[in-house]
Prior knowledge:
- Belongs to the binding-protein-dependent transport system permease family.
- By secondary structure, this protein is mainly alpha-helical.
- 69% of the residues lie in helices and 1% in strands.
- It has helices at 2-31, 57-63, 70-101, 107-116, 126-136, 142-146, 153-164, 168-176, 181-192, 194-209, 213-218, 227-232, 242-277; strands at 235-236, 239-240.
- Helix 1 (2-31) packs antiparallel against helix 13 (242-277), helix 3 (70-101) crosses helix 7 (153-164) and helix 3 (70-101) runs antiparallel to helix 10.
- The relative contact order is 0.13.
Amino acid sequence: MKRVTSIVRLIIMIVIALISVAPILWMVAGSFRPYQELFKYTSLNIHLLIPVEWTGRNFHNVIFNARNPFLRYIWNTLLVASIVTALVLIINSMAAFAFAKLRFRFKTFVFALFMSAMIIPGEVTLVPNYLLMHDLGWLNSYKALIVPSMLSVFGIFMLRQFFAEVPNEMMEAARIDGASLPRTFVSIVLPAAVPALITLGLMTFLGNWDSYLWPLIVINDQKMQMIQVGISTFSSNEGTDWSKVLAANTLSTVPILLLFLFLQRYYIQGITMSGIKG
């Protein structure tokens, strides 16, 4: 009976996985099709996912597009996402450590105030943030993309859950050995939360890689634009060049897939442990 249950569960998981992966496979296959073949095969057959005529012309048209410098979009997004991820890990880990292990006045109130920010939709703060960037003179600059994204309330909450599990005895032993508070934080606390840090880093990087609305609002210079806004330029009032859109989306997916490929073990561990400790 247990074997039958396991087989049924495996079949259900395979079906769900295929349903989830099918759109991605269609996107990748479509990026290698000529435009006239793109919507020719819509019925359920082998050519729905495997092109009849293979071509790399779509990628060539995307990468070497003079009007839309796609490689520059990738570089801009990679630069901004990497800087934001690094700053989020540094700033939020220190804030989470303070909330988890340090004692100061009104700590509970301040932490509750931080957590209340999680219920505020990002669209509500869109206009105030834009006006702030305008007053600071940061519009059309990387600062407008980086600075507002440096703080993650969810990141503070998640890391605090990990840091709270670090035994106080270990920190006290480090202090007895002469370690300062920053040294204790770097040598004792951070190594215990590596899965959580990697999980938060992946979430932050992915969020900035997929960011569309905020860069669209604060960046006007085409050479400074982000990748998702760059992909949208293949659509206009004249129509949408779906071959280029699929090729651009395929290219933009590669860095994320590589990240998850190398860090998936830590990501899954971080999600699992955060669920247990939450």
